[in-house]
Amino acid sequence: MPEPILELQQVSVHFRRGRVLLRAVEDISFQLGLGDVLCLVGESGSGKTTLGKVVAGLLRPTVGVVRYRGQDVWRLDSGAFRRFRRAVQIVHQDPYASLNPIRTVVDTLVPPLLHHRIARNRSDAIERAARLLELVDLVPPEQFLPKYPHQLSGGQRQRVSIARALTVQPELIVADEATSMVDVSIRVSLLNTLRRLREELGVAFLFITHDLAMAKYFAWQGRIAVLYLGRVVELGPTPSVIGDPLHPYTQALLAALPEPDPDLTRRKSKLLLRSLDIPSLAHLPSGCPFHPRCLRFVSGLCDVERPSLRFVDAHRSVACHVVVQERAAGDLPPSSQEAATRRADERMPFERG
Amino acid sequence: MIDVQRPSCQPLLSVRDLVVQYQGASGAVQAVRGVSFDLASDESLALIGESGCGKTTLGLALLGLLPKAARIMGGQILYRTRDGRVVDVVRLSDAELRRFRWQECAMVFQGALNAFNPVLKIWDQVVDTARAHGFRDRTRIREQCERLLRLVQLDPTRVLDSYPHELSGGMRQRVMIALSLLLEPRLVIYDEPTTALDILTQRAIIEVLRSLRQELGFAMVFISHDLPLAAELADRVATMYAGRIVELADVRNLFYRPRHPYTRGLLLAVPPVSGPLTTVVSIPGSPPSLASLPAGCSFAPRCEFATDRCRREEPTLSTVAPGHWSACHHWSAVSLDRWMERLGGASHA
Amino acid sequence: MSAEAVVVRHRRYPLRQLAAWLRDLLRHDKVGFLGVLGILFFVGLALFGPIVVPEPGKPDVTKIYQPPSLEHPLGTDYEGRDVLAQVLRGGRSLIVVAVLAALLSTVIAITFGALAAYLGGTVDSLTGLVTDVILTIPQFPLLVVLSAFVKLDRPWLLAVLIGLLSWPTLLRAVRAQVLSLKEREYVEAARALGLSTFHILFREILPNMAPYIVMSFTIGVTSAIYAQVGLYFLGLAPLAGENWGIMLNLAWVRGAIFFKDSVLYILSPILAIALLQLSLVTAARSLEGLFNPRLRES
Q1: Which domain holds residue A326?
Q2: Which of A97, A152, A105, A95 is CA-nearest to residue A132?
Q3: How far apart are CA A227 and CA A30, in angstroms?
Q4: Same structural domain for residues A220 and A263?
Q5: Would you tell me the crossing angle of helices A248-256 and B199-216 to the nearest 10 degrees?
Q6: Of the residues A18, A214, B246, C179, which has the fewest C-beta atoms closer than 10 A?
């Protein structure tokens, strides 16, 4: 395997709120190589945004190491840290907050080009800014350069944010819900632009989203990591995680997800959970953090011992005692989703006719 | 005028040629431009569209809740009350409107946190609301409340004794949904009922809405940008674009046999999660500003089917099949290939 | 056309922007426009008053406390000198000192407030401490006490003293605003782009506070004027030269208050001060339109 651009090694981020310690991100490790796509999927409070900030070098982890090309980024000298800064960029969620309202598009794009001496002078920088706008499908660029953010639509603003990230020729872009606040009809073309950047420029992506449909579409050739309360519960190639989820939480998510297809979606309507209550980060359950909601909960195991992320085959890993044991025993359930549905029928406390 | 009524069914609500206009600093803008539809008393209708298509304005207008800057310029909102009278919501006085809301018709807004008063316990707010509508029997209110909260899978004693901030977002949304039914309205309007909620909570709300409707039998209009939600909950779906309904059909017809290029475009832009990777296509361009609509069909500049006629002449909603209306000159050319294999080329019968 | 040419064509020149703002005020905000005119008038007075307006004449016992006449439209003072000339010439020192003082306090507040908020840690705690200490001392009484030790006979000295005492409130406000602005996503993006702290503070964050800063500056000017007038009125600053504060002091001390004919003599410096303050406040209120690109358009 070629040297990864970025590597996280047992990274944890803890926040102190008053007397309470919030374990926002706990013990996460992964690598990202050139042109890789990794989707972080999780619901609110799963720590996905915090993790994105750690990857982008905006937040120093409490525990663990972030390596850029093999070197611990928080021990780099200033010159090397600058190179790391240039290599990893972030695109935010909110098209209304991610651009400075008083700076025009050209004033947003030119400073980084000059600061990092990518452009020779101001007129070269403007020329490059125009090319970047073309790259993100804002054509003709001359029309957009003198515009203020409020003169652009949400989708166009997101494109300017992407162009701004591209000014410094990054190797990795952290896209934090970058498409979730724009309208449905525009979302896909924005995603296509990102995809093209990956294919043409070889930019790697950490794509953070709560929307599994978008994750599937963007990262079909890549991997998905499912986060729950700050921990990765399942990591694997996108088609297998979505097509055959292993972790009970992933299964519940996929089973619960409404689909844009009336027949399909009305067939799945069962909630594969024991409880709807999401535990607070300040009072995490003992053992597996999912055990109070999990249908496959085994008393004396899941509520005692915290499962670590284990490989179940060459590409996939799961943090679940039950699944790992089953897999080890060769006792493969027919299809995990079906099995879970069956159990749901027996144990679902919410279910009604 | 076209007849958008379902056969053999006396509608609970008939909206006819409704026009709502906002008076802004830079002139008047029509947010709803001639909308007509019927709603049966047991029906669930989804208004689907993107931001700025007028769906929320329409929802507010149905309840006479429009903000001061908005005015109804024309049309009727005919509502059949419990005692069989037909009233036009547009012409109701303020006092009549207050009675109409909650008792006949309730609305649940997006973001339930703001709907509650943060310094009052839920129970006190319930009592206040009920009082405001002339219900003074505390025991009866309590009983009704507990029954509804149990229906939405909440522990009544705990919830009623809590302050809003002590409940999670999903719980508050469920409380809102339960309380909207307190006075047994016959129509409930939900504005983005599941937006900003987690998937699992979303699922719980969907289940709750479905079972509540089964149990209590009320009509539902819900406003959303979320196609999967419509697929899940609606009997019929209306697609809105630039202040108009551009397509209205039974949910399966709309999803499997869309007859308007915009509906088709939306469906192609939202991939299903299960199954293999499907083609996903975006609609070019972006929604027009209501302040400067193009001539002819508003969707024409983004439409692959558009011809000169579309740019000249605005199409009206017309019948393309029984119970299926589309506002497109070229509706017969519109089809959605994605479903062809699944449906085995089934015709529109 | 090349991209650069387009950008140059659309560049917003400050003067052109100012003109557009004034045009906009004239059309939509007449009060604000009057405020701006008022400020221009007083600035003109400060710059040219003592040059254009002749001196109010030599003391002349025969002319003391005269009522308004054609020769002396606002009457004469206790020494028989022309009041109108004194009013027109007496703005300069007050205004210049007030502007200098406000400038000083604004610069201090912005620099340290922004740095404290953005860097946090020790810098923040230290500025916080100094700010709190100065805030707890009542400023005007301190000025009064200081005037006993320092001879406030030079305008710049007065300006520095007032300026050094009046920054803490603004600093706190700037700090709070920067604290909230630095969490904005565009600031985070600028950090990720590796842009310098200087760029982030002075090009991304502070320009967003421009209306607020200019507003605070005008408030600084008003309070510096009051402080000076107070000092002169109490006679704590040397009564050398001519300004509205000194006029008020003399009118009071020399008993002009007992003469019916001297109403305008006493009222005119008060009125001048009030008008100046009013212009500052009304113009400041309309400043938002100059800085917010969204408002600038319509």
Answers
A1: 244-347
A2: A105
A3: 13
A4: no
A5: 50
A6: A18
In a domain, A20, yes or no: yes
Domain count, chain A: 2
Residue A205 corresponds to which tokens in the numbers above? 């992506």
Question: Do A177 and A279 sit in the same domain of this protein?
Answer: no
Fold of B11-234: Rossmann fold (3.40.50)
**Any idea what the Cα angle at residue C184 is, between residues C183 and C186, rounded to 5°?**
130
The 10s digit of each residue's pLDDT in C204-230 is 888 888 888 888 888 888 888 888 888
The span from the CA of A192 to the CA of A181, in Å, is 16
Residue A146, classed as helix, strand or coil, is coil
| C54-87 pLDDT, tens digit each | 777 677 777 776 777 777 776 777 677 777 777 7
Could you read off the pLDDT of B23-47 as tens digits, one per residue?
Answer: 877 788 899 999 999 999 889 999 9
Prediction ipTM score: 0.82
Shortest alpha-carbon distance between residue C28 and chain A (Å): 22
Mean pLDDT score across all residues of chain A = 86
Tell me the pLDDT tens digit for each residue of B300-321: 999 999 999 999 999 999 999 9
For residue A193, is it within any domain?
yes
- Reported for C183-189, long-range contacts at CB under 8 A and 24+ positions apart, including other chains, are C184/A97, C184/A100, C185/A92, C185/A93, C185/A94, C185/A97, C185/A98, C186/A97, C186/A98, C186/A99, C186/A100, C188/A58, C188/A90, C188/A92, C189/A89, C189/A90, C189/A92, C189/A98, C189/A161, C189/A164, C189/A165
Task: Say whether A253 and B199 touch across the interface (CB within 8 A).
Answer: yes
Residue C7 confidence (pLDDT) above 80: no
Q: Report A:91-120 residues touching C (Cβ under 8 A).
A: 92-94, 97-104, 106, 111-112, 115-116
The answer on pLDDT for A235 being more than 50 is yes
Give the model's confidence band at C159: pLDDT under 50 very low, under 70 low, under 90 confident, else very high.
Answer: confident
Cα distance from C284 to chain A (closest Cα, Å)? 19
Give this prediction's pTM: 0.82
Contact B203/A271, CB-based, under 8 Å? yes
For chain C, domains (ranges, CATH) are 30-52+71-297 (1.10.3720.10)
Could you tell me if A311 and A214 lie in one domain?
Answer: no
Spatial separation of the C-alpha atoms in residues C56 and C66, rounded to whole Å: 14
Shortest CA distance from A337: residue in chain B: B274
